[in-house]
Design goal:
Layout (H helix, E strand, L loop, with lengths): L2 H30 L3 H20 L3 H24 L3 H26 L1
């Protein structure tokens, strides 16, 4: 795979993960009667903080994204086991794993 294709794939997966995290946060707001202005920023701001550096094509941004994805991976796994929104949580897990692999492949190609 070319470096450009890996970068485009990682950015597309990042955008879809950001959108799915926002949907997941809004579902939690509706189901648990929480304040949307607290839940939505807590779920999306860490990902949005990486976005400018990912767009600048910085290797360290992809490394940091890998660590951040490990943290984002824990919540849907716990919720999937407990039976809360199984479809959304399964999609979140799949997207997180795919983005993690794409980021690692991009980092590997970046250093070659």
């Amino acid at each position: 795979m070319s470096n450009r294709l890996l970068r485009t794939t990682a950015l597309a997966l990042f955008a879809s993960l950001l959108l799915l995290e926002a949907v997941h946060a809004l579902l939690a707001v509706v189901q648990q009667d929480l304040a949307w202005y607290l839940v939505l920023p807590l779920k999306t701001l860490p990902l949005l903080a990486c976005l400018p550096f990912l767009l600048q094509n910085r290797k360290r941004a992809y490394i940091g994204l890998g660590f951040l994805l490990c943290l984002y991976f824990m919540q849907p796994v716990v919720e999937l086991v407990s039976g809360v929104n199984p479809l959304v949580n399964a999609l979140l897990i799949a997207k997180i794993i795919a983005l993690f692999i794409a980021a690692l492949l991009f980092i590997r190609r970046y250093t070659e």
